[in-house]
Amino acid sequence: MSSSLLQSRVPTALSFSSSIAGGTKPQWRFTSAPAVTFTRRTRNSTIHAKIREIFMPALSSTMTEGKIVSWIKSEGDVLSKGESVVVVESDKADMDVETFYDGILAAIVVAEGESAPVGAPIGLLAETEAEIEEAKAKAAGAGSSAPSTPAASAPSPPPPPAPVAAAPTPVAAPVAADGPRKIVSTPFAKKLAKQHKVDINKLVGTGPFGRITPADVEAAAGIAPAKSSAAPVTAAAHAPAAAAAAAPAKSAPTFAEIPGATIVPFTTMQAAVSKNMIESLSVPTFRVGYPIITDALDALYEKVKPKGVTMTALLAKAAAMALVQHPVVNASCKDGKSFTYNSSINIAVAVAINGGLITPVLPDADKLDLYLLSQKWKELVEKARSKQLQPHEYNSGTFTLSNLGMFGVDRFDAILPPGQGAIMAVGASKPTAVADKDGYFSVKSQMLVNVTADHRIVYGADLAAFLKTFAKIVQEPDSLTM
Amino acid sequence: MQSSFSLSLSSASPITGRSDGGATSTAPDLFFSSTTTPSQLRFCGLRREAFSGCKSSNNALLLKQLRPMKKISASSSRNGTPSKGFDYDLVIIGAGVGGHGAALHAVEKGLKTAIIEGDVVGGTCVNRGCVPSKALLAVSGRMRELQNEHHMKSFGLQVAAAGYDRQQVADHAQNLATKIRNNLTNSMKSLGVDILTGFGTVVGPQKVKYGKVGESETLITAKDIIIATGSVPFVPKGVEVDGKTVITSDHALKLETVPEWIVIVGSGYIGLEFSDVYTALGSEVTFVEALDQLMPGFDPEIGKLAQRVLINPRKIDYHTGVFASKITPARDGKPVTIELIDAKTKELKDTLEVDAALIATGRAPFTQGLGLENVNVETQRGFIPVDERMRVIDSKGKLVPHLYCIGDANGKMMLAHAASAQGISVVEQVSGKDHVLNHLSIPAACFTHPEISMVGLTEPQAREKAEKEGFEISIAKTSFKANTKALAENEGEGIAKLIYRPDNGEILGVHIFGMHAADLIHEASNAMALGTRIQDIKYAVHAHPTLSEVIDELFKSAKVKSDVPSAVAEPVAV
C-alpha cells in the first residue's frame, strides 16, 4: 500500500448502508480516505442485533471487487472504533479498512488472498464474547470459504475472483463455491455480459466443464434467450416436434382453475403418449371407412378359437395379407420428402393397459401362420402386463390395428402414430340389414373399419384399394388359415 | 447493344532457342520476398482445370482463347517425342495445382511430359484446401444470410429458423473435391500426360526414380525436372494433434464435428475462413494470434474494417501477442487445454479450456525424401531455395541445371494459382523462352463473408518502397455504400483501396473488402500484370449497375498528374 498515492486521491463518495446513515462520522486513518462500507447489516435484527457483518468496501468508483491482502486483526481480537482491521487491494491500490464499531472480530469469512465483490461480507463482528460462537456458526454455515485457506494459495493478478460464500444476507447474493476457481466463459458469453452489464465473475456456469455460456448470462440479465442461431437439424422430423414443444412455452394457455381438482402427473408411459399425440398433429391425415360382412370370419373364429386363435390375430393376419398387396399403406414418410417402404409387415396392436396405452408389435404378420401369431400375441400381452416389453417389441410397427369392437363401439377414428403410414380402427360386428346386388335384403353381421393414413404418401385411392382387398380377405377368410 | 466481343488470339509465342542459365532478371521480386512472410499466406484459387493461361515476361500481353476439344486430342499426340537420350522432356514431381498447370502447358509446348504423384491428384488445394473450404464457405454464407433476420426483413423476406445437416454439408465439400480431382485427372489424361504413381526422388542430374513404398522403383531420365511437392499444415511444437479435438485444416475440412467452442490458432487466411464457417454453423470461436494484431499480412486499414465486420459482431474473441505453447487434446473427461505464453516474455499468461482447437499457423513445405542431397541442395526451413526463375540453388549458391521448384515447396508465394503460374513460367523457359513471373501482380483472396482480396503492395509496404526509391504515392478509396448493386443486395459494407504513383499512374496495390471482392480484384491484377496505367484504364467502361463499378470509381477517383501521356487519348470508333 502506498500512502502517498492515497494522499493524492480525491475522496470518493462514502457509501454506507442505511443502518448507520445517521451515525457518527467514522474515523479514518487517512484524511482523504475513500469510502469504506462497514456496516451493521443483519438479517434478523431481533436475534442477531449484536452481530455485524463487515462488507467489502467500495474503494473507488470503478471498483467492483476487492482482494483481501491481509487481515491485520485475527479472529478473537478485540477491536476498537477506528482501528485498522483488514487491508484490501482494489483495482487501484491497497488500503487499510477500519472499524467504526467496538467489538470482537468473531469470524473471517473471506480469507487472505481471496477476493469478494463490493458489498459482500468479508468478516463478522460480535459485540460481546457471548456472541462469538453464534457468529462463528453463522460464518461456518455461510460456506466453506474458511479462513484457514492459506494466503499462499492466491495466484498473482489477475486475482481469481473467488466468490465469497455468502452469509445469510440479502446482499447481491454472491455465489457459493468451493474456493478459488477459474472462471471460464465463452466468447459470446463475454460479449453478452459486457453488453448487459452482467458481472461474469458472479455467475455459475452451467455449460460443459462448468463454463459460463451465453444462456447463463442471459438468465442473469433476465432476458429471454436469443433464438438459437444455427442448431444443426439432424432429422426434419425433429423440427415440428421442437416447434410443438416450444409452442406451449411461448403462450402457455391459462385454464380456469376448478377448486378441488387433483393434479396427477403423467406416468412415463402417459408422457410418451402425450408427446406422440402432439407430434401426430404435424402429419396431414385423412380417413376412409369401409363396411365388411363378417359372417364368414365369425364362423372361422368359432372353428379356430379352441386352438387358441384370437380375433386380434385374425384381424392382424388379414391386415398383413392385404398390406402385402398394397405396400404403400405399409410405408411411412419420415422426412416429408420420400417414401420409406418397409421390408417387413409388422402389425402393432393398440392395447389399453394400466392406465396407459401401448402397441405391442406382431412382427412379420404376413409370414407367420395364425397359430404362431396367436401364440406370439399371448406372449406380448403377458410381457406388456408385466412391463417387460423391449423397445423393439412396441416401436417397430409399420401398421397399427386398434379394435374397440368388444365394447360395442360401432365406429371410431384413430390417430395415426408418428412414423407410420396408416392405422386401422375396427368397430363391433353387428347384425345389420343389407341389400345384395339383386336387391334382396338379409341380415348379416357387419363391422365398420376406418383407416387413418398419412396423405403425404397414401392417397384416397390407395386406401380404398387396400380396404377392398382387406374386405375380400375377411369375407372369404379361408386364405387366413393357409 | 453489343455487350461482348470474343477475341481469338492464339499463343503464338515463337520458340527461339533456350536461353540457359546466365540471363539475369529484369524484374526482380526482391521486394515481395522481403515483405511477405510466406507462412502466413495460404489461400488459393484454382486455375481453370483443363486449360491454362499463360503469362509471358513482365508486362507483355498474351491472350489465349479456350480451345475446342478437338484441338486437345490433337495436342495429345504432341506428347510423344522426347529429346534424344531422355525418357521425357519434363518430369514433374507432384500433381497438385502447380504441377498440373505446368503439365498442361508443357504438352501445349510439345514437351513429352510425365507427372509423379504419391498421393492423390490435385494436391492440397483440391483435396484438403481451397476447394473443399469453398464448399463449406458457400454453406456458411447462406446460413449467415438466412440467420440474419434483420437482413432478411430489410428485403421483406420471412425465413423460419435455418438449420443444417452437418453430414450433408461435409458431403458437399467432399463431393466437390472429388469432382474437381476427376476433372484434373481427366484433363491430364486426355492430353496424354503420363501419370506415374509413387513418390518421386531426384537421384542425380536429370534423373528421377519413383515407386510406391515397399515396391520396386523405376528410374527415368528427363531433360528438365520440376519439383512441385507442395506443403502440409504446420504444427508448432508443444501441440498434440489428435485429429478429433485438436485438428488441422486437413481434419477441419471433413467437418466431422461442429464444436460448441473452438480455438483457432492463427488469424491468417485459413483461420479467418474457418472462423466464418464455424460461427455460421453455431460455434463460438477464440482466436490465438502470436502477433500484436489480428489478421497480419492484410493492409492495416482493410484489416481494421474486416475486424469490425468479421470479428467484433460475431461470437468471437481473441488473444493477441501470445503463443499457444502447449495444446492437449480432450481426454479422460477433460476439455482441450491450451497454454498461452506471452510472445515476448514467454511467461505463462492464460490457460484456455475449450471443446476443440484448430491449428492454422500456416503451412510447412513438404520436401522430405526428395533426394535433394543427391544434387547438393540444402533446404532452408524446409523450403527449396530458388532464384526468380524458379531454378533450384544448391548449397554453394549455384544453380542446379535442369532442376526447378515451384509452388509451396519454394515458399515464394504459397498460393495455388501462384504455383500454377510459376509452373507455366518454368515451362516457358525450358521450351526456350525466357520468362520471369511478376509475383506482385498475383492476386490473393480470403473467402469470408464478405470477402477480402488484394494484389500488390499494402500501404506500409508501398510507403517503404516509395521512401527507398524516392517517389510519391497516393491513396484512393471508394465505398461499397455508394454502389447501386451493393445497395440492392443490402451489402453496402466494404471498401476498395488503391495505392498508386501519382507521377506516372502506376498501380502499386489494390485491396478490396466487400461483397464478391475475390472476383473484383482481377481487373486490378490484370492491369498490373499488363502494365496498364490508371490514366488508361479509367476510360474503360463498366456495365451498370454492377459491383465492378466500385473499381471503376476507384480508378476514376485517382489523381494522376495531368502531363502524363495517355495511351488512349481519344475513344476510337470501331
Automatic annotation (TrEMBL), chain B:
Binding annotation for FAD: K134, G200, T229, G230, S231, D408, M414, L415, A416, H417
Keywords tagged on the record: Chloroplast, Disulfide bond, FAD, Flavoprotein, NAD, Nucleotide-binding, Oxidoreductase, Plastid, Redox-active center, Transit peptide
GO biological process: 2-oxoglutarate metabolic process; response to arsenic-containing substance
InterPro entries reported in the protein's UniProt record: Class-I_Pyr_Nuc-Dis_Oxidored, FAD/NAD-bd_sf, FAD/NAD-binding_dom, FAD/NAD-linked_Rdtase_dimer_sf, Lipoamide_DH, Pyr_nuc-diS_OxRdtase, Pyr_nucl-diS_OxRdtase_dimer, Pyr_OxRdtase_I_AS
Gene Ontology CC terms: chloroplast stroma; mitochondrion; oxoglutarate dehydrogenase complex
Binding residues for NAD(+): G266, S267, G268, Y269, I270, G271, L272, E273, E289, G362
Active-site residue numbers: H544
Subcellular location(s) of the protein: Plastid, Chloroplast stroma
Domain (Pyridine nucleotide-disulphide oxidoreductase dimerisation) ranges: 442-553
First-level EC class: oxidoreductase
Known catalytic reactions: N(6)-[(R)-dihydrolipoyl]-L-lysyl-[protein] + NAD(+) = N(6)-[(R)-lipoyl]-L-lysyl-[protein] + NADH + H(+)
Function: Lipoamide dehydrogenase is a component of the plastidial pyruvate dehydrogenase complex (PDC).
Record family assignment: Belongs to the class-I pyridine nucleotide-disulfide oxidoreductase family.
NCBIfam families: lipoamide_DH
Name the record gives this protein: Dihydrolipoyl dehydrogenase
